[in-house]
Protein: Radical SAM protein
Amino acid sequence: MAASTLLKFAWLEVTGLCNEFCDHCYADSGPKGDHGTMTVQDWASVIDQLADMGTLDVQFIGGEPTLYPHLSELIQRAHERGLGIEVFSNLTHVRDELWDSFRNHGVRLATSYYSDTAEEHDQVTRLRGSHRKTRANIRKARGLGIPLRGGVVAVHSGQRVGEAARDLLSLGVPQVGGDRARAFGRGSDGAVPVIADLCGHCAHEKCAIGPTGDMWPCVLGRFLTMGNVRAEPVADCWYSARAAAVATDIAAVHGGGVQSCTPPQFLPMCGPCQPCVPTIGHCDPKEADAPPATP
Structure:
């Protein structure tokens, strides 16, 4: 149960705004999204509370987190509090001040990638030129010595996922993994979200906090609210009876698989578009003993 475990990792979804409009977006974010009701002071307080709780790592996500105007400020706050930091970005819109922030505060980057061809990649993102911009910023990150991971998500039948993985490797991305599109947000195509389509590792030493302050077991499990950090402290949400009930419900569906994959296999934890290390090669804990996937 959540109440019996340390909260080691948190996704901080600082915005629902995104310059892309991917068909499979679990957050249903896009150009019409906004930054929600969490203020920069709210986020700074969350970061402080997480550090005080012994949390090790945070990942800033969205939407597209680089579109959040206070991202550099929050990165600095997390760095000052000793948290490991990763930013999950589509890498199409990185301001100079953010590159400086990434370098100065030891930030790791992660990005999604859909094809080795611009036409297919841009078809998924619905943003013309996104393939070119992402590739250019992958090269820039590598040139600046910023650690970078890549994830290839299978969205469409016949998609060039293997070629996409090899393309990332050719760009010097040292860690490339993948996942399938899951039935959440726009990816659900109108279906009601269910626990069975989660990876099963949700709420185990991790949580997500969204733009309105809601706490979820992971960014995909936003239909399972564990509390709200604007209404009560982060620790009270995490150690609440409601959070414990959510963790119990997930374990009831996934059984022992909820514990099958633990760090360091997941870096820093499991999640959408976040690749496993090559020895795992997939993001389904129930298949943890299966041979690694190959591009």
